[in-house]
Design brief:
Length: 172
């Protein structure tokens, strides 16, 4: 009886040691995964108060239940759907800001570019991080050199003569 109990406990511990920890901090991917930016549920259907007052159908145009994320964002921020610039989806008051921000051009595939650059960076920096006896947080290990130190940055600005209203807490 005692031998079987020890055997069961050792079997449970060995099986638990083989478990996979697929968390947010795990930088490896088992596949391409879904693109969360493509999923957009439709608005809920509404029953009109008067069926005779419905607008005529417009083939090829937007539906009442189709989402308009840019228009919804403009309305949520206090703008008007009518005042939107239809070519770019930018409010007329923000046109100058967008023009100034994109004065040197903009890359339409910025997400794919950053994803490829980050994968290359992780491949170079994480080359020898697979050889560990104990599991560690690979995210912090790979991106440690890019970590910002608020206290040293505050000091740097203060020495340069910039007005700094308050000191961040010193983490070290």
């Amino acid at each position: 009886m005692r031998l079987s109990g020890v055997l069961i406990i050792s079997l449970a511990v060995s099986v638990a040691g083989c478990s996979s920890d697929k968390g947010v901090r795990n930088l490896t991917s088992s596949g391409p995964g879904p693109d969360e930016f493509l999923v957009m549920p439709g608005k809920p259907l509404e029953q009109p108060k008067n069926y005779a007052m419905l607008p005529p159908p417009t083939p090829g145009e937007a539906n009442r239940t189709d989402l308009d994320p840019m228009g919804d964002a403009v309305v949520a921020l206090g703008g008007s759907r009518v005042a939107r610039n239809n070519t770019q989806g930018i409010g007329s008051s923000d046109g100058a800001l967008v023009s100034y921000a994109s004065r040197a051009g903009r890359d339409a595939n910025i997400r794919q570019t950053v994803l490829a650059e980050d994968a290359n960076f992780r491949k170079r920096r994480g080359r020898f991080t697979n050889f560990r006896i104990v599991k560690q947080d690979r995210y912090n290990e790979i991106y440690r050199r890019q970590e910002l130190d608020a206290y040293s940055e505050w000091w740097r600005w203060r020495k340069a003569g910039a007005r700094t209203p308050a000191a961040p807490p010193n983490g070290g």
